Amino acid sequence: MLDLEEAVMGIIVNAGQSRSLCFEALRHARAGQFSEADALLLQATEAGKAAHAVQTKLIEADEGEGKTKMTLVMVHAQDHLMTSILCRELATELVEIYRRQAN
């Protein structure tokens, strides 16, 4: 079984990193630095995958039977993950808009 506190922090840290990289990518895209923006979005995707992998392990350990203790910090971690996923999707679209405007 996963250490719950470690797992929750893994989600929060990786999701937070993903979100931060997305905003950095947007700053680069706004400046017309699209290769940098693309690289940052790729890094954001990898950080998001790491957070999602931890979430998947928690779901598997729970087996749909409520085995995993649900805490406020667990809900907070899930919120971070979902926010980072939405941020990455929106940032990807905005980088494309900046790219089209630059041409």
Automatic annotation (TrEMBL):
<dbReference type="InterPro" id="IPR036542">
    <property type="entry name" value="PTS_IIA_lac/cel_sf"/>
</dbReference>
<feature type="active site" description="Tele-phosphohistidine intermediate">
    <location>
        <position position="76"/>
    </location>
</feature>
<feature type="binding site">
    <location>
        <position position="79"/>
    </location>
    <ligand>
        <name>Mg(2+)</name>
    </ligand>
</feature>
<dbReference type="InterPro" id="IPR003188">
    <property type="entry name" value="PTS_IIA_lac/cel"/>
</dbReference>
<dbReference type="GO" id="GO:0046872">
    <property type="term" value="F:metal ion binding"/>
</dbReference>
<protein>
    <submittedName>
        <fullName>PTS N,N'-diacetylchitobiose transporter subunit IIA</fullName>
    </submittedName>
</protein>
<dbReference type="GO" id="GO:0009401">
    <property type="term" value="P:phosphoenolpyruvate-dependent sugar phosphotransferase system"/>
</dbReference>
<keyword id="KW-0813">Transport</keyword>
<keyword id="KW-0808">Transferase</keyword>
<keyword id="KW-0598">Phosphotransferase system</keyword>
<keyword id="KW-0460">Magnesium</keyword>
<dbReference type="GO" id="GO:0016740">
    <property type="term" value="F:transferase activity"/>
</dbReference>
<keyword id="KW-0479">Metal-binding</keyword>
<feature type="modified residue" description="Phosphohistidine; by HPr">
    <location>
        <position position="76"/>
    </location>
</feature>
<keyword id="KW-0762">Sugar transport</keyword>
<dbReference type="Pfam" id="PF02255">
    <property type="entry name" value="PTS_IIA"/>
</dbReference>
